[in-house]
Amino acid sequence: MCEACATPPPTPTLTRAQLLRLLGVGVGAAVLPALPGGAAQAATTHGTGRGPVLVENVRGYTLTRKGRLREFSSILISANGKVAGLDAHAGRGVRRVNGRGRVLLPGMHDAHGHLWSYGALASELDLSGTRTLAEAQQALAAYAAANPDLTWVTGRGWNQVIWGLGRFPTAADLDVVVSDRPVWLTRVDGHAGVANSVALALAGVTRDTPDPAGGQIIRDADGNPTGTLVDNAMGLVSSKLPAPTIEDVRQRALIAQQKLNAVGITSVSDAGTDAAGYLVLRELAQAGTLTMRVNAFLTWDAFSEVGADVRTDSFAADMLRVRTVKLYVDGALGSRGAALLQPYSDDPANTGLLRIEPEELDRRVLAILRQGYQAAVHAIGDRGNRLVLDAYDKAFRKVGDRGLRHRIEHAQVVALDDIRRFKKLDLIASMQPVHATDDMNMAEDRVGPERIKGAYAWRKLLDQGTVIASGSDFPVSSALPFEGMHAAVTRTDREGRPAGGWYSEEAMTPVEALRSFTLDAAYAAHQERVIGSLEPGKWADFVLTDLDPFCLPANRAMWQTGILRTWVGGRQVGEYGDL
């Protein structure tokens, strides 16, 4: 329980029917069983089931409570799935597991990801690897042909910058491939989408459709919609998509956790859980089916409807936490929706978009604090970040911060004068190191040589004592935590570009990078007492890897680290290669 709380938070009590009615999720043939009340323990999720276990003959690393690196050669796990000791004596009745000299690290905590879209992508068109519009069109044609029964063709991952297109894609670009049913494809950052003509017609988007507040309909010289919609305008089309069934939601969670376990992620902060998602996570946690801890950020709608009833710091042996609310203030840099204090350097008539007015942002932040929730607000541009800093400052003056470690998600481009305010307000900077290397192909074009000094500014934040919780923003960027660590330490992409690193003065050390993906990510989730490091009394969540991030061979890079085993709560949940 959070120390700031005078009384324990209530146990989730809402029924399945109530939650589904709140969200309006369609119920397919396969539905959830009724969920009993109470925080039942998930006995099958934790513990070995066979008594204590000693994992020995490893090169182990963990952080101590003070953030220092400790090495060890064995870890003793108690029957309840918690760490009993490092380099501890193993008595009689202890099952031994030989780590064969492999590296053992605390399980990675992705501090900002999107479970539901990540799981959905397994069955949608994935355009993230396409290098040109033509490649994307070929992929669309193949996917549509392979899925003739889909009423809508959906996907994500396009990036007009990588395509070298010099413009956003259009409905005409899609129509030449699929014209018999609606197509909706989301940009890689999730802040823009392109529809074909059928989808635009179904959504009623015409030249007479006004831009919604916080959104933009991209238009041609005659004022006609081209097919691309940015930020809040995306809802004009996305609201017409078929509603997922509850079984769809469940399968997305199961697929996502399987993929994330395989890259070494044992816990995640999900940046947008609605009521149906909460219901599914609660069911899976209670049944012992979750193999990954989830710190769920409620959407504003879910918080408004059910927040008072579902708040909990720990459900099912720390498998689920619901104590954070996600808000958005602006869009993304790649689609020029990030809100800037001055116009874009490569688009002088544009200062980006506010997805919510400042007064409404202030109101929502204050409401979140008054309900005893942690706020996590998406802010990319320097204006967006300033507005969020202002909102926290105003709210703290009214109710205090209550020790809830409020967060700014991304904190991507920050005015230099505002960086110190993160420390003054004691905020968490929830950042994604791989965004720097993903965005370096356009970031300075967008903001110019002066504003870039406050962008992806990890070193400036760390040096002033601000906690950075690292994540990936999957599926926006690669979910591989070691790719994020590689970016954090080298400021280069997978190919080592640019030589010497992009603004390398902002790089982290290897220990800082590991800490940002483990102990500090857990701290940002109020879970540092139970996960984040391998100390006695904490859950035995760890991975075995084929590379040592602190002693890499000359011909290998950190992003190439492979996961061999994943353990959660003292139980192996994934095996991916020979030890």
Describe this structure in words.
The protein is α/β, with parallel strands linked by helices and 579 residues long. It has three domains: 49-107 and 532-578, Roll (Urease, subunit C, domain 1), CATH 2.30.40; 152-239, Diaminopimelate Epimerase, Chain A, domain 1 (Roll), CATH 3.10.310.70; 246-531, Metal-dependent hydrolases (TIM Barrel, Alpha-Beta Barrel). Helix content is 30%, strand content 22%. It is built from 19 helices and 23 strands. Strands 6, 13, 14, 15, 16, 17, 18, 19 and 20 form a nine-stranded mixed β-sheet that branches. It starts with 15 loop residues before the first helix and ends with a strand. 55% of the residues are buried. Residues 1-14 and 23-44 have low confidence and may be disordered.
Describe the structure in brief.
This protein is of the alpha/beta class and 579 residues long.
Shape: globular
End-to-end Cα distance, whole Å, is 38 Å
What's the gyration radius in Å? Answer: 23 Å
CATH architecture group name of the largest domain: Alpha-Beta Barrel
Unreliable stretches covering 5 or more consecutive residues: 1-14, 23-44
* Domain unit count: 3
What is the number of helical segments per DSSP (H or I, 4+ residues)? 19
Biggest pleated sheet: 9 strands, mixed
The CATH topology of the largest domain turns out to be TIM Barrel
State the share of residues found in helices, binned by percent: 25-40%
CATH homologous group name of the largest domain: Metal-dependent hydrolases
DSSP E strands, number = 23
Average pLDDT, to the nearest integer? 91
Structural class: alpha/beta
